[in-house]
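re: ur question from yesterday

yeah so i grabbed the chain u mentioned. its 291 aa long if i counted rite. heres the sequnce exactly as i have it in my notes:
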Amino acid sequence: MPAKPPPSNRGPRRGPHLRPLTSARNPQLKLLRTLANKRARREQRLMVAEGEDLVVAGLERGVRPSVLFVDAERTGELTDLLARLGDVSEAYAVPHQLLASASQLAAPPRVVAILPQPGPFAFRDVVFPPSLGVWLAGVADPGNVGTLVRSAAALGADWVALGPGSADPFHPRATRAAMGATFAIPLLEGVRGEDLASRDGFRVVAAVLDDGRPPWETDLRGPIVIALGGEREGLDPGLSQLGPALAVERVTIPQTHGAESLNVAAAGAILLAEAMRQRSAGEIGSVGPVA
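ran it thru and got these structure tokens back, copy pasting raw so excuse formatting
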């Protein structure tokens, strides 16, 4: 009779060793607070993910936490996630109130992680000219930036470039609005109009409030870069940086009389969806709002 194999010592997967953290002066907790500051995030190339959904989104794109904080009262609810994070050496069980004091959320999550920022990316690292790119010129609200990153990733953009005056895409509000898309699409930071103008092989489709063609009458089949500006100043300051070298086509989304102008994130989603529709159909269409 063959000998029985020795019993396995491997057992079920286990999570990281969670060290108790009870002091607000803990260096890693102080780092978490510091990363609410844009300069600190940029200098250290770190970001904060609040909530297991963002942590999982990072894991699925190969971005693993460097530091993990878990609500000490709720570790039993996170067995599956913690099993995927067994290699995180800096992992802490934090009392609920102490973790809440470092969180940017009104209702603190069960998990907060410090992660390396994806990138940085430059034009040499991404598809260029793009089939479909997005350039944000002066979109200052982090929530709008995050929502546009999410829409761009979902609707087929190759990358999102952020011009001067645009919010940091790694701001906690931006990453929450992006809902994991921060890890799914390259984000190019500090891209000026002059930088775009130094390249060729694409058209710029600029979203403007007035006097542009409807998007369904504009060829959005690419290669194009959709340009979106801040809600207060619009896109004109950004377009002035492009100079005469680039072909710029202006589009305006028609609205009912007397309506407030569209939020830039909503306008961007409409243009990206129309670009996807045209590319799927293989042609532009003349359909518009029902009279």
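noticed a couple things. The longest strand covers residues 111-116. also The CA atoms of residues 258 and 291 lie 16 Å apart.
anyway ttyl
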